[in-house]
Each structure stands twice: as structure tokens, then as C-alpha cells.
Amino acid sequence: MIVLEFEFPFIQAFIFCHSVLLIISLLVSLLKKTSVKTESKNWIYTLNTWLPPFAVISFILSFKDLLIEWYQQTPYEWYQIQELHWKVVFYMQHFIAPLIGVLFFFQKLRLNALLILLYLIAQNIYIIEAVIIKWTKDFQPSGWSTEENSPGDTIIQCLLPLVLSGTVYFVLHKRKKLPYPSLFLK
User: How far is Cα of residue 101 from the mean position of the Cα atoms in its chain?
Assistant: First the structure.
């Protein structure tokens, strides 16, 4: 099956990096120190500011892939699509998560803890699926992947979202759009 991460690895890397940074920011926001809490909420707001365009692109590309698979109708791909646990994971990660991500276009929802939690669960459902289904899967050599990212690709895929986050944070600070005063930029 043609999947988003092989076709457009940078979009998937942006979304994955967003999830990791969001989890770190949420954990830091649980600290009792007020200044750290406000700064982590600023980062959550910043991360959820640049997510919606990538969520829209991800949704469109996933929908395109599903249409291609429907049109080709090869037996292996239809077997994969018809497996129940795979359907849930596929639809959660490729359709529900981007639709929740699009809701972050609305400024009032960017700091909504319940919406952020739903997004993280939907986006990272494949990890939950791997833990639950892993014991029942048959790991035959036909399912093994030999594709690897080069170290340069990995570094670029990790640095670009960080640079984008820093740039968006700086622009939001300059335009006075952050929900709380920044500690770093005064």
C-alpha cells in the first residue's frame, strides 16, 4: 500500500516531531512552577499553530492513497484494508487525527487539553496497536522492510520542525499573539 510516510517523509516527520514536542510540553506544563507552566503553554500554542496546514495536507494525501487503492484493487492491499485492527489504526491515524488537527485552526481550541489528548491518541494509535496486536501477528519475511533513512535525512527531518517551531514562536511573540508573556523573548 502506498502510505504517506514513504511518499512524503517530511510531512510525516513534521507530524511525528509535533507529537513528540507536544508530549514533552504537556509533561513540562504539569510542573508547579508558574513561569515554566506558562512557557510550556506558549509552546503548545505555537506547536498547534503550525499543525493545521500539515493536517490538511496529510488528510488530502491519505484520501488520495485510499482512492488509488480502491481503484487498483489488488488482492494483497484489499486483504490489508479488510483486517479489522488495521482499519481502525489506518482510519484513526490518517483521517481522524488530521481532522482533529484541523480544529486547531481555531485559536481557542489550541490549548484545549481534551482535544490535544484526543489528537495524540489518534496520531499515535499505531504504537498502541503495536503493543496490543504484536503478540498475534505473524512476522514473516515478506513483511520485513529494508528501507532505511540516511543520517542526513534523519537530521533534516528532526531539525526542520524545530526550526519551524522556533520561527513560528518568534513571529507569534513579535505580533503579540502568544497567550502568555514569553520568558525567553523580552
Answer: 9
Residue the block writes with cell 500539515: 54
Query: Domain extents for the chain?
Result: 12-134+148-174
pLDDT digits (tens, 9 = 90+) for 93-147: 778 888 998 999 998 898 888 898 888 888 877 666 666 665 555 555 555 555 6
* 12 Cβ neighbours under 8 A, 6+ residues apart: 4, 5, 58
Measure the CA–CA gap between 34 and 86, rounded to whole angstroms. Answer: 42
What predicted TM-score, i.e. pTM, was given to this entire model? 0.72
